[in-house]
Structures are given as C-alpha cells and as structure tokens.
Write a structure and sequence with these properties.
mainly alpha, DNA Binding (I), subunit A, two-stranded antiparallel sheet
Length: 208
Amino acid sequence: MATLNPKIVGWANYYSRQNSSEVFNRLDHLLWLKLWPWATRRHPTKSHAWVKERYWPMRGRRRWVFGLRDGTALARHAATTIDEHVKVKGDASFFDGNVVSWASRLGRHPELPKSKAKLLKRQQGRCARCGLFFTDMHEVLESDHCQPRSLGGKDGIQNRDLLHRHCHDQKTATDGSNRRRTREVPVTRAKQSAAEEPGEANVSRPVL
C-alpha cells in the first residue's frame, strides 16, 4: 500500500490534464485482476466471499475498495479529478486586460497583488464560498480569513480565501467573528468608564 499509492496518485495527477477517465477505469480493473489472484492464493482454504470481505470491504457506498484492517485503502486512478488543459488562443496577450484569467492560470499579474494572484490560482479562478468563477476585475475580490483572527486564526495565506464581496458578508455573518466582537466591545467600554469615573460622578467645575 505504501509503495503503490504514491505511484498511482502521481501517475494519475500527471495525466489528469487530459480526458483520461476511460484509461483510469481500465487501470483500476487491471489492478484488480492482479490483486484478486494474489488474495485467493494467500487464503486457499477460504471462500471467495470471505476473501472479498477481508480485502475489499464496503467503505461507505463504495464497493470493491482494496484496503487493510487499519483503514488504509488503495488509491484509485478513477478517483482523480479530470481537469483538462485549456489552450491559450493565439491572439491572447498577458496585457489584454483579462487579469483574472491570467492570474488564475499563472498565479501572478502586475495589476494584481501577489497574494490575490496566488489565491486565484489556488482556487482555479472560483469563489471559495459560492464556487462561481470570478469574471473580471469589476467584481470585488476580497481576501477573507478562513478562521477569523478574532477566533484565533492566523494571518498567513494558508488561512485565506478569495471571495465575492456579498459572499464575504454572508460568511462574516455566520462564522462567529461578529459575535466575538460584540462581546468584547461592552467590556472595553466598561473598563474605560471605570477608569474615567473611579466612583464619583464627574461634575463640571469652573477653573479658578
């Protein structure tokens, strides 16, 4: 398992930029053709049903997933997401104004901050909340903390997502950061008032 999984994942990712779904399914079948005789030879006195349950147990809704008792499972070629490469048109230019498209492809653009360009490439040009593509720079692209800083989140790019403005507003309203801030404000004001008024009412007096 430790030897096969890295090879399967690496090979499948390498060819995931092409329409390889049929080939991936074929390779998974060829692997099964090798593993089934190995499993039956290892337990010659056991029935095929026992061998199937021992090495290919049900995992959720998936059947015939080769795995071990410790929970590790054999990687599947067909589980790799196919993301076909999109060719750039011959008349396209890096400075044609399509900032979002170029930043999503390359992860950089002189008209966009480096952090936002990297996030666009990481998210493949999509909003992290609604999943829709960013169309152009007229849309407001806001960098949001996945875990709010008020709740202990870090400020690095690993803890950031790029969102539409309205998606950012929706997330902020539900992620608990606003409630944390509203709890902190009255306490701060109470401390300020206690410092200003140590126990007696302030009375305006003329300066003599």
